[in-house]
Design goal:
The chain has 2 helices and no strands. With 75 residues, the protein is mainly alpha-helical. 5% of the residues are buried.
């Protein structure tokens, strides 16, 4: 829930920034919001990709260590 709220708050800040950049002109709130969603989601997807790569690397190292250990035990 906290991550969802943080993401919502970040989207709101970015959307407001876009509104600000347009000189506070009204009528593009939905466009600002959807653009802000794309910006924030892109940022989060890059962070998630890094986390996944790190987890995969850790998993491969653990698997290799187990294989090495089990191979030594079999002898």
């Amino acid at each position: 829930m906290n991550k969802d709220k943080n993401m919502y708050d970040e989207i709101a800040r970015v959307a407001y920034g876009l509104y600000e950049k347009r000189g506070y002109s009204h009528g593009s709130d939905i466009d600002d919001w959807t653009q802000a969603e794309r910006i924030v989601m892109k940022k989060y997807s890059k962070e998630i990709e890094k986390d996944v790569k790190a987890l995969k690397s850790t998993h491969r190292m653990k698997t290799a260590a187990k294989e090495t250990t089990s191979g030594a035990r079999a002898r």
